[in-house]
Structure formats: structure tokens, C-alpha cells
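Re: the request from the purification team.
They wanted to know what the chain is likely to look like in 3D before they choose a buffer screen. I agreed to run a prediction and write the result into the notebook, where they can find it.
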Amino acid sequence: MQARRLPAIRGWHWIVEGFRLFRTNPALLTFLVFGYWLMLVFLNLVPILGVVLAPLCVPALSVGVMNGCRTLERQAQNGFGLLFSGFRKNRNVLLVLGAIYLAGSLAVFAGSALVDGGALLGIMMAGKQPPDDLLQSDQLMLALQVTLILMVPLLMAFWFAPLLAAWEDLSAMKALFFSFIACARNWRPFVVYGLGVAFISAILPGIVLGIVGAASAPLQKMVAVAMSLPLLFVFVPTLFASFYVSYRDVFVSGER
């Protein structure tokens, strides 16, 4: 498995090409993305087992969405049943990836507990309200920073892993390895990609709301609602499509 090394600008192109892919069938891609989130919400509602079932199913459900993206790109016959198509092939490997991701996430939050005494871990796992004195201190912010730093290698290992396992028939450990190496080789486009996502989803809306808010607070609320709709129903599906584009760009050259 060979990961291509791409120029930095490709990170922005992932977003642009993701939007083009979304435009080919907005209804289908929006259904798949929101179906993905609703399934995770439903699984999390299962008493006791929900916190385990949801992470286990994340890789297979994400493959289902990516199958939809690949189908749209190839202009093949599509259907709304694609959401569960990730469970049809290499299901056991994908479940193993889900288990490893759960264990890795717990390890990351456990690491943050060394900074804040487990407050952030309690918030994430049980919705535990931290004490007021902790919220007013720098401990929680430091724990968040530690968590973000520790999450980077975990996300690198899992960015491409589900697709490598489902589409390339790799074992869980090989998929994690090649995903990490691919992300490391392409850190420049990933930095540009992250900056582009941050600009569209946070920086630009913040600038607009700041300008509007300076003129009229009621108008600011209306604009905030108006801006949230395209972000939710256009940019989020585009973001998922950009995940597929990044995989196709790094691991696929030409038509498969």
C-alpha cells in the first residue's frame, strides 16, 4: 500500500471537490450523513451498553457514508440502504477498529486526568458537571489542550483506517499503520484542510456575526439562525464528502 505525497493546496481542494460531490445528489448525501449521526445517537441511548456500542459501530457506519460518496462519484445506481453497507464486508475488522478507537479515546482522556483530576473524563463519559472552582481555573483548559495533542496521533491512525480495512482488505493493525503514515506524509495538505474547515465553519461566521452584531443585536440573532442552516445541511455533508476525496487523493491514482 503506497500513500502519495500531495502538495499543501490539495487540502483546500478536498473541501472544494467535496462540495462538488455533494451537489451531484444533495438529498442522498444529506440522508447518509444525518442517518449516521442519528444511528450513533440511538446507540448511545441504549442503557449501559450504549457507550460501547456507538464507538464499535462508528467505522462501519462511516464506511457506509463513504460508499455513498464513491457511488455518487461513479454515477452508479444509488440507494438509501448504503448507510448500512459498511456492515456487509470485513465487518469484524471494522468492529475491531471501533474497539481500538474506544480504547484509544479512553487512554487519551485518562491522560488528561493527570492534569485536572479526571474532570474532563467525567464530563465526556457521564456528563458530570465540574465544580465551579475548576471551571474558573486553568486546569480544565490545560486538560483540553493535553487531550487535543494526544488525539492527533489517534486521529491520524484512524483517518483512513476504516476505508483501508473495508476496501483494501487490510487487517486492523495494518490499516492503522498505513493511515498514520499517509497522514504523516501529507501533513501539509492536512494543515491547509484544517485551516479551511476552521475558516468556513467558525472564523468567517464569527466575522459576519461580529459585524452584524455591532449594528443590531436582534439582527445578529436572525443572521446566526440563517447561517446555521447552510452550515448544517450543506457544509456538514460536504465535510463528509471531503473525507472520501482525501482518501481517493492519497491512495487512488486514476480510475479504479
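For the purification team: The chain is about 80% helix and 0% strand.
Please add any questions underneath this entry.
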